Amino acid sequence: MADQGLYANVLNNYEPQFSILNEKARSLNEHLLKSYTPLQIIAITSLATALGIGIYQFIFGHDENLPTRIKQAVFRLARRIPSVQRQITKARDDTLQSVYESMAKSVKGHQFAKALPKKGLSKDELLLKLKQYRNFENISYENGQVSGCVYKLTEDDTTAIYNTVFELFGETNPLHADVFPDIRTMEAEVVRCVATMFHGDENVCGTMTSGGTESLLMACKTYRDLALSKGITRPEM
Predict the structure, then answer these.
(1) What is the pTM of this model?
(2) Of 82, 159, 188, 212, which is the most buried if we count CB atoms within 10 A?
(3) Is the confidence at residue 1, as pLDDT, over 60?
(4) What is the rounded distance in angstroms from the CA atom of residue 231 to the CA atom of residue 138?
(5) 152 secondary structure, DSSP code
(6) Is 67 within 8 Å of 58 (Cβ atoms)?
């Protein structure tokens, strides 16, 4: 009853304004019906609605502020200019050509295999071929000056150790944890040691990855899933 009294009070106070708006709306409706066919009115309404939604999403549907989105839109439009497209294409092609030439130098003169041999190679032939491939290397990574390439310790026995380890476990498959409990146990211990290093409790879990790139991807996925669980749908990197 209180709500009804409030609504009635509002209508009484603003009745002249409502009447003017109602009259203007009726007049506009009559003008549109006289000026356009029903099909045209439907088309104009649809276009206006789509335009309004587009403008609303452009202004409020992104995490970036409006000036940043305007700059991005300007750059996207600028990249469609033919002269700009030609410059971008030229820069990309020059970069690719430079990469191709740099990589081709290390294998210059090599005759690439294009099909499997009809007869398999003997052990000595295979090792000889592998040594030939090994000679392609022209960058010394052993000194540790190549970033993100090979992580090599300086101890002389390191290579011998991981070669021995490979002999022990080279034929195992970590995907089959039931068949290879040794691999499963070592993985669990490594994960637990890392969790302890970061002060994780007994609920902390993890998994082994094949390298740094996959580790980064898995970390990003984990944080994304955590954000989604908290209702964050547009996280920032």
Answers:
(1) 0.55
(2) 188
(3) no
(4) 51
(5) -
(6) no
